[in-house]
Structures are given as structure tokens and as C-alpha cells.
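Entry 0007
Protein: tRNA uridine(34) hydroxylase
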Amino acid sequence: MYKVCAFYQFAALPDFRELREPLRAFCAGLSLKGSVLLAQEGINGTIAGSADAIDAFAHELAHGAMFGGRLNNLELKCSTAEAMPFGRLKVRLKKEIVTLGDAAADPTRQVGIYVDAREWNALITSPDTLVLDTRNAFEVAMGTFEGAVDPDIKSFGQFKDFAAQKLDPAKHRKIAMFCTGGIRCEKASSHLLARGFAEVYHLKGGILKYLEVVPEAQSRWRGECFVFDERVALGHGLQEIGLRERDKGHAGDE
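Output (C-alpha cells):
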């Protein structure tokens, strides 16, 4: 049994290029596989390995000398896999750890209101709340929350166009958004706040945290949650749904 860890944090990493090789070597030394993205704005990725190796990796990011305490607020979500869900290790440099293409969207300056998974049902069933799925269309097709709006986008970079065309600050006073692990909502909520939207909420820890802590009998989630590794999708309790061909996944939660 392997431990799989999805993680991210927005943090100033002006030396991100110099961090690539030390981080790759550290992960390789622990026999970890998966994808890690480094950018000036932070880190994002999903990796897998033994439980001890994952714990050592998380400790190094949060408390080790490599990042010097700059990643002490990591969003971590761990699950398990019966088979190694990645074919190799990749550590890549990017302009953004999740690509939106809006300089005004800066989660280190402003972000929406985090909502705990246990409080999510009450928020999305409120009649004055617009529930918004920020993921790509193929992900939404596999599963989503009851009553959620599908932006019908092929990539997250198209979200700002959807917002400009379909969302109105005067009309949509209360927006609750969600994504797989939370990172896309960080950018999306920051984008909407910069455009003058008054109340923007997002599911802390994303769908994965909701499926982990909310009992299926109380769940408003319908379908399966696509994940960016060979397990393809997870269900309630973060149970594996299936496998797919190796090396055709994506890095992190994009």
C-alpha cells in the first residue's frame, strides 16, 4: 500500500529555480514518484511512496532547511493506493503553480472565505448561494455537487473569461466555489474579489477533504472525483475507483 499526498502552498519563492535540483534529489532519495511544480508564487504537486517517505517529505517542506520555514502552512491531503500511481518523478519550473494568467489574482494578498467541509452542505443549500465548480469540463462530467454551475471550460486559464461573461458582482452576491484539492479556488476567489465580488467562499481542502470527512449518507456529492494520477478517480472515503495508463496524468491540481 502506497501513501499519496497532494499538497500546495502559495508563498514567495524567488529562488524557486535554485530549489529544483535539491528538491528532486531529496525526493529521489526517498524513492518518491509523482509531479511537483515550483514557481515564484509557491509549490504544488502530488507524490506517492511509503508512508515514512511521505512523512519525511512533508516534514522537510514545512520545517527543513531547504525552504527555510516558508512552507509552514502547507495544504496537505493524503490517501492510499494499492499500486504506485506514478511512473516517475518530475520536478518542474512554472510561471504559476496553477495557471490562470491574471496578475491581480494573488492569494497571498487576498483570498475568499474558507469553509470547512463539515459546514459546506449548509452553505450550498442556501437559496441565495451560487455554487460554482471551477474544474475542467471532463472533471465535472465525472462528478460534482448537486446544483453546481459548470463553467464548461477546457482549462483553468479559461475561468477568467467565464467570470467576465457569466458572473456579475451586482447579481451574484454570494458565491461558493470548489475544486479537487483547493488550489484552483485560491486563485479563482482572489480573481473574483479583485473584480469587486462581495462574498466569495471556497471549500477548504477541496472535494478530497469533503469526501474524506463527510459521511456518504450526508453527502451532497454525486459521482466520482477525478484525480491527477493513475487511480483516475476517488469516491467517498477516498476509495480508489480505477487505474489508467501510466505517464498520462497531470502535475498537481490544475
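Curator remark: The longest strand covers residues 2-10. The two ends are 26 Å apart (CA to CA).
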